[in-house]
Amino acid sequence: MPKTARAIRAYDEELTACIVRRDLNLLPIRCFQRVDGLTQKLRDICQESPKQQVMEYIAVEALHPLFRAKFLPVQYGSVPGRGQALGKRKIERILRKKLTGKTDVAKGDVKKAYPSVTVECVMRLLRKDVGKNKVLLWFVAALMENYPGGHLCIGSYLSTWLFNYVMSYVLRYILSLEQCRRGKSDRYVKALVCYADDTSIYGRFSQLVKVIKKATRWAKATLGLNLKPAWQVYHIASFEEEKAMKERRKAGCCQRTDGVDMMGFVVRRTYTIIRGRVFQRIRRQTLRAWDDVQRLGFLPWWRAARIAAYKGWVKYSDSVHFSVKYSFSKLLQLARVSVSQHNRKEIIKHEQRILREAACCC
């Protein structure tokens, strides 16, 4: 440990010297394309050098007071402590406690989210909010000078925070829209939830249409963001309609009422299920895992890792019937044992390799 601590301290001093003399000397970012396994979209991924990754962590820590002040409580995704489960619970509270009457929901996102946020736009906002800290402004600008194309890149730690920072301006504009009648102002949007670039707004359909048009024009003119004009609209059923639909489904009907499809879940007034294509992947991997157990007598660690990754989807949704039918809880126990044994073997192999190298040196 003392050697590791001294190495870390020496590297910190080297990075500090680079910042003081204002010469970061960063390596170019490697860009490549990868197909998203869930949506089948072709995404441009960037791979940064270790030095730039460390520098970006330093920049995020320096900007943390700004992010803490600017981020809204309804922003989820890429924010520590605010993940899919917390965002799903927020939507459930809105539909089941806050807006119990007639409610419409519009859901939209940003077209090419990261490529549409330019470095110039980010620096313009930072100069307005962090105008006095010239060194910090130079540091962030120097890091983003290395970004290919002059825009935020997927795979960058700093880019995830800066995108949420830019989106906070869009969300504040949406929440500020209101109409004034007889001296009384009434907001168009009654509630809002944002997950990265996906945004769902809650209110009346006629008012939400106005919000969509105004927000699309404002984001493009002010920030350069291209909000998709075609928003998905959900007409949320009441509690009585949900109960009636439940009785029809018991009688053999396959229909469902509209639900808010967001963060991998579909939330309705009385229950929450997993998004269709995500559920298909979970069911397929579950069947293959049980087939491996029957053929091999054990669960391979790579299959166990996939099963363990789906625990949250089943845990935070109303999937009791699925869990019982496919014995998902028992499968999770087998997956935990398999992954634990594999990790223990890897640790032993690593220790043996270190001992062999030490013996060779002697």
Topology:
Layout: H1 2-20, E1 30-35, E2 42-47, H2 50-70, E3 75-76, H3 84-98, E4 103-108, H4 113-116, H5 119-129, H6 134-144, H7 157-176, E5 178-181, E6 184-187, E7 189-195, E8 198-203, H8 205-222, E9 232-236, H9 239-250, E10 260-262, E11 265-267, E12 272-274, H10 276-296, H11 301-309, H12 311-315, H13 320-325, H14 328-361
Helix pairs in contact: 2-6, 2-7, 5-6, 10-11, 11-14
In short:
The protein has 362 residues and is of the alpha+beta class.
Count of discrete alpha- or pi-helical segments spanning 4 or more residues: 14
The residue-averaged pLDDT reads 89
Separation, N- and C-terminal Cα atoms: 21 Å
Oligomer: single chain
Write up this protein.
With 362 residues, the protein is an alpha+beta fold. The protein contains 14 helices and 12 strands. A 5-stranded mixed beta sheet has the order 3-7-8-4-9, with helices on both faces. A hairpin with a 2-residue loop joins strand 10 (260-262) and strand 11 (265-267). Helix 2 (50-70) packs parallel to helix 7 (157-176). The protein is flat, with a radius of gyration of 25 Å. The two termini are 21 Å apart. The mean pLDDT is 89.
List keywords for this structure.
362 residues, alpha+beta, 12 strands, 57% helix
